[in-house]
UniProtKB/TrEMBL annotation, chains A, B:
Any GO MF annotation of the entry: proline-tRNA ligase activity
Protein name from the UniProt record: Proline--tRNA ligase
Naturally occurring in which organism (per UniProt): Pseudonocardia lutea
Domain of life of the organism encoding this protein: Bacteria
Catalytic activity: tRNA(Pro) + L-proline + ATP = L-prolyl-tRNA(Pro) + AMP + diphosphate
Localization: Cytoplasm
PANTHER family for the chain: MITOCHONDRIAL RIBOSOME PROTEIN L39/PROLYL-TRNA LIGASE FAMILY MEMBER, PROLINE--TRNA LIGASE
Length: 580, 580
C-alpha cells in the first residue's frame, strides 16, 4: 500500500535530541523512527516499526530454515522457576519484579531459560523426541542501571532467543554450529560488518560462548583481535602465562624505606634514584583490595587482586571473572575495620596472614620477583619472589588488555576495537536441565540428562546497530534488506502536473511489487530532499522538471550518484535495481 | 515450509486439563496450542502461535486498508501520564504496578489512551495534520480478579487498539463508522457469528459505544435483542419509563403491621390474606442499601436503590451505572452505625430523612403507588405514592433485565443470549484531549480541541472465541482463514511406500502454495486420525491403501464428509478446494 507523506504520522526534527550522544540515536529520533517514553523505553513510529518488522522477518526466516520451531512465552512470569535456579536473586536490581493483586511474586522476563526448559520437560519424555530447537521473538525487560543510546541499550527490547535441547555433547556442538551458521546468514542479509569473538557466558553459566559484535566506534563492547584470526571480547581474553622461572638465583627480598612514593611512578623514580638497578612499572606488583558477595549472601568477603603495576584493573574483566558474585571497591570504613590493610602499601604478606583470598594476574608466575607494598607506611619490598616469599591463592583475569599485548594464539600482537553486541551463542550445558531434572528416557530405559544451548539476537538493537554503521551527515542510509521502503518518490514542485506524475510513477512502482513512499506534501523541494536524505530509503526518485521531457532523476542515497532514466519503463528499471 | 509431526513440538493430551471448564480452553490445551504458565498467563506453542499470527494479520490488513497507521508503544509505562488522567488510581487492583531500581513508579499498560494522545500531541500541531487514525497490535496486561477460561480472559493478552483523532464531532462519527465497517470485515473474514450491541463505555469515559460479541453460550457477557434489531449489552439496556400517573386519585398511604414477612413473597401472601386487594411482587418496592466510594476517596457514602420487588438488583448493571465509583454491599457494622436502617423494612422516608442518596428504577414514576418498608420492624406501608409521599433523587439502571421485557425500541419483547466480547468501538470525545490539552491550531489561528475515538479488538481472545464457536466432540474445527495449516496429510500406515507417498503428496501441495502438516509419525492410523480431528485443520488428506490404485481420501473436518480423489492432479484439486 502506497504511503503518502502528506498523511504519514511523521514529523522530522531539525535538531538533535538533547539526550542523544550516538549517531543512531540522534538520527532515529530526528527521522521520526522512535520516540522516548521513559529512560530506556521507546515507542516505534510507523517508519521504525517497518524496519523492526523487516529485521524480525529475516531473523524468523533463517531460524525457520534451520529447523527451529517458533513458540512464544509470556513476559509476565511467576517467581518460582527463577527461584529454582537462584536467578530471582542473582539477577539483582536488573530484574523488574512486581506483585499481583493476591501478593504473588512475578517478574518481567529478562531471558527465558527456565521457561524453555520447563516447556520441553512438559511435552517431551523419550530420547526419540530429541534433538529440538525452539525459539521466540519476544519483548524482554531488564532494569539497566544506565540505559543509553536510545534503543541500543533499552529496558524494554525485542529479542530472538532460542534454545537447543540435545541428548549428548556432540549434539549440542552440532546445534551450536547450526546457530552459528544461521547467525552468519542473518547478519549477512542485514548488511552488517561484524566480528565473531570469544566471550564469557555471563550470569547464564556454561562453556563455549561467542559473541557477534557489529563493528562500531560507539559500541559498548571492546574486543581485541590478532593477526592469526583470534578475536575476543575483552572480558574473555585469557592472558598467556610466561614460563615459570627458577627461584634459586633470585636475590633475597629487601624492605626499603620509600618516603613520598604514593604512586607507581614515584615509586619507580625513587628506586631508580636510590638503588643501582633500573626498575619500570612492570616490575611492580599493585595490590587492589575489593570485596565480593555471593548472590543471596548477606556478608561481603575481602579479596586481594595483584596485577603488574603498569596495568590498571579492568573492572568489567574483574566482574566477569567473579560472576555471579557482586564486586565493590573498599570504602574507608572497610579499611578502618581491617587495620592490617595499610592503604598504598598493601603486600601479599598481610593479606595472607589475615586470611584474605589473594588472586593474581596470570603473568605473576613462580620465580618472578616483584616490588610491592611492605604492609607498613612508606615502605616497599623489592625482590619478593613468587613461590619463595608468597604463594597466591590462584590467578584471575582482571588486568586491562591493551593493544600490543601478545595474542593468545601466538600469532602476533592484539589490536583493539569497539563493537555492539548483536548476537550471542553459547553452550549452556546441563545447568538448567539439572535445575529442573530434564531427562529423556533412553533406549535402555535409563534417564539421559539433556544438554542445552542458548542463542540470542537483539532484534530491536539491530535497528540501531545498522543505523550506527550506515549513515552520513545528512541522515540514515538503510540497506535494501531492511529499508522501510524500496523507493522514495519526491515530487519536486507544487504543480498539478508534477503531483499527478508522482502519483502515477508511485502507482507503477507499486504495481511492480515495490514498497513506495511518495512525498506529495506542499513543501519546498529543499525540505523534501532533506527529509528524503534523513529518512534514508536507498533509492530516491525525483519527479521534477524533466518529467515534461519524459525523464526522472534517480539518486542513490548511499553514493549520492544521480542519473536520469526514461519515464517510460521506469518501473521495470527500478524494480531491477531494487532486486539487484 | 512443510511441518512434519515427527519433529513438531507438539504432544496432544487425551484428558481435559483439570482447570478447564469451557470447550475452547479444554481443546486448545489438549491439542497443544497453548500451555498455562500462571493464572491467566499462557505460552503459545507452534500451532497456537500460527493461528494467533493469522488472526493478527487479518486484523492488520483491514486496519491498513482503512488507512490506519501502525505504531507500537511499550508495555512498560511511567506513572505520570496515567496520574494526569487519574487512571493510575481509578484502575484499582486491575493495574499491574511496579517500581524500577531508582524507585520510579511504572505500570504495565492495560490500555494506551494516554500514550496515543501524547504521541499525537508530540508530532502534530496544525489542523492540516488531522484527521489521523493510529493503531498498535500489542501485548497488554490486566490483573484480573478472576482470570478464566484459558486465553479467553487472561492477564497478559494481545490486543489491537486504535485511536482516531478528529477536529470535529462529525469527523469522529466518520472515524467511528469506518472502524465499524472494518470490524465487520475482520470478523466476517474470521468466520465468526457475532452481534453488535449497544454498550456502556466502562472506565474510559465517552459517549457512543458498541460491542462486538461473538455468540457463545459460555460467554461472560449477557446481551438482549429485540425483534426490530435492537441489541444491547445487558449493562447498556435502558429501561423504558412508563407514563407518569395522576396522584389525585390514589388512596392515602397506610402502615400495616406485617409480622413474619421477611421476604417479598411472604409479604405479598400476607397482604393478599389480610386485605381485600390483590397484590403481586411487582407492586412492592424493594430498597437495597449499598455504599459507594469515588476513586481516590477515603470515605464510603451510603446509597439506597429502589427496584420493583419482582426483580433482583443486577450488580454488573449497578456497577456500570455508578462507574468509576466502587460499590459494595453494606456489612453488619454499617447497619450498626446507622440505626435508622431497619434491615428488611427500609423505606424511602428514613433514607431521605437521614440524607442518604436514593435512586430508583425508571419504572418507579410519579403517581405510581408502592408497598414498601415502613422503617420499623414488622411493618410495611401500602400505597406510598411517588411525587406525593416521596421523591427519589433520580433514577438508576440497576434492576435485572429479563427475557420478555419490552424492547426499548418498542418493537416487541427482548430475548437474552450470551456472548464473548471480541471488539469494542466508542467515541471517547475530549476526555483525554482535555487532560493533555491536545489542540490543533485552526485555520483562524485559534486552538481547536481534538476529539477522539477508541477501538479495541482482543486478538488473542479471538483464538478462543473462534474455538468456542467452531468445534465438536472430537476437537477443533478451524475456519480456513485462520487454520494453522491448509491441509493435514495423514500417512495411514507404516510402510515405506505410504511414507514416500505422503511425502510426495505433501511436497506437491506445498508447491501448489498450500500450508501443509504431514503426519509422518510411526503411530497407528487410529492415533493419527484422532490427532487430526483434535488439531482441526479443515481438510484432511489420507494417504492409505488407495494409494496403490492412485487414490487419496479427502475428509472435510467440519462436515465429516469423505470423498476419494485421484492421486494425479490432487494438488490442483485441493488448492482449488482450499481457495474456495
Amino acid at each position: 500500500m502506497l504511503t503518502r507523506m502528506s498523511s504519514l504520522f511523521l514529523r522530522t526534527l531539525r535538531e538533535d535530541p538533547a539526550d542523544a550522544e550516538v549517531p543512531s540515536h540522534k538520527l532515529l529520533v530526528r527521522a521520526g523512527y522512535v520516540r522516548r517514553v521513559a529512560p530506556g523505553v521507546y515507542s516505534w513510529l510507523p517508519l521504525g516499526l517497518k524496519v523492526l518488522r523487516r529485521i524480525e522477518n529475516i531473523v524468523r526466516e533463517e531460524m525457520d530454515a534451520m529447523g527451529a520451531q517458533e513458540i512464544q512465552f509470556p513476559a509476565l512470569l511467576p517467581r518460582e522457576p527463577y527461584e529454582a535456579t537462584n536467578r530471582w536473586t542473582e539477577y539483582g536490581p536488573n530484574l523488574f519484579r512486581l506483585k499481583d493483586r493476591k501478593g504473588g511474586d512475578y517478574l518481567l522476563g529478562p531471558t527465558h531459560e527456565e521457561l524453555f526448559t520447563l516447556a520441553v520437560k512438559g511435552e517431551y519424555s523419550s530420547y526419540k523426541d530429541y534433538p529440538v530447537i525452539l525459539y521466540q521473538i519476544q519483548t524482554k525487560y531488564r532494569d539497566e542501571e544506565r540505559p543509553r543510546a536510545g534503543i541500543l541499550r533499552g529496558r524494554e527490547f525485542l529479542m530472538k532467543d532460542s534454545y537447543s535441547f540435545d541428548l549428548s555433547d556432540e549434539g549440542l556442538s552440532e546445534s551450536y554450529a547450526r546457530h552459528r551458521e544461521a547467525y552468519i546468514k542473518i547478519f549477512g542479509r542485514l548488511g552488517l560488518r561484524y566480528v565473531i569473538v570469544a566471550a564469557t557466558s555471563g550470569a547464564m553459566g556454561g562453556s563455549a560462548s561467542e559473541e557477534f559484535l557489529a563493528e562500531s566506534e560507539t559500541g559498548e563492547d571492546t574486543f581485541v583481535r590478532g593477526p592469526g584470526g583470534y578475536a575476543a571480547n575483552v572480558e574473555a581474553v585469557t592472558t598467556p602465562a610466561p614460563p615459570a622461572e627458577s627461584i634459586e638465583d633470585k636475590p633475597a627480598a629487601v624492605v626499603h624505606h620509600t618516603p613520598d612514593t604514593p604512586t607507581i611512578e614515584t615509586l619507580v623514580d625513587f628506586l631508580n634514584a636510590h638503588t643501582d638497578r633500573k626498575f619500570t612499572a612492570a616490575d611492580t606488583l599493585k595490590n587492589v583490595l575489593l570485596k565480593t558477595r555471593q548472590p543471596g549472601a548477606e556478608e561481603w568477603e575481602l579479596l586481594g587482586v595483584g596485577v603488574p603495576g603498569d596495568r590498571e584493573v579492568d573492572m568489567k574483566r574483574l566482574e566477569a571473572s567473579l560472576e555471579p558474585a557482586e564486586v565493590a571497591l573498599l570504602e574507608d570504613k572497610d579499611f578502618a575495620a581491617n587495620p592490617f590493610l595499610v592503604k598504598g602499601y598493601i603486600g601479599p604478606e598481610a593479606l595472607q596472614a589475615n586470611g584474605v583470598r589473594y588472586l593474581v594476574d596470570p603473568r605473576i608466575v613462580t620465580g618472578t620477583a616483584w616490588v610491592t607494598g611492605a604492609d607498613k607506611a612508606d615502605h616497599h619490598v623489592v625482590d619478593l619472589v613468587v613461590g619463595r616469599d608468597f604463594t597466591p591463592d590462584g590467578t584471575i583475569e582482571a588486568a586491562e588488555v591493551r593493544a600490543g599485548d601478545p595474542s593468545p594464539d601466538g600469532t602476533g600482537v592484539l589490536e583493539a576495537a569497539r563493537g555492539i553486541e548483536i548476537g550471542h551463542i553459547f553452550q549452556l550445558g546441563r545447568k538448567y536441565a539439572d535445575a529442573f531434572a530434564l531427562d529423556a528416557l533412553g533406549p535402555d530405559s535409563k534417564p539421559v540428562r539433556i544438554t542445552m544451548g542458548s542463542y540470542g539476537i537483539g532484534v530491536s538493537r539491530l535497528v540501531a546497530a545498522i543505523a550506527e554503521q550506515s549513515h552520513d551527515e545528512s541522515g540514515l542510509i538503510w540497506p535494501r534488506s531492511v529499508a522501510p521502503y524500496d523507493v522514495h518518490v519526491v515530487v519536486a514542485g507544487k504543480s498539478a502536473e508534477l503531483l499527478e506524475g508522482g502519483e502515477a510513477v508511485a502507482a507503477e512502482l507499486e504495481a511492480a511489487g515495490l514498497q513506495v513512499i511518495l512525498d506529495d506534501r506542499k513543501a519546498s523541494p529543499g525540505v523534501k530532499f532533506a527529509d528524503a536524505e534523513l529518512i534514508g530509503v536507498p533509492t530516491i526518485v525525483v519527479v521534477g522538471r524533466g518529467l515534461a521531457e519524459g525523464k526522472l532523476e534517480v539518486k542513490d542515497r548511499r553514493t549520492g550518484e544521480r542519473s536520469e532514466i526514461s519515464r517510460e519503463g521506469a518501473a521495470e528499471a527500478l524494480a531491477a535495481l531494487v532486486r539487484g
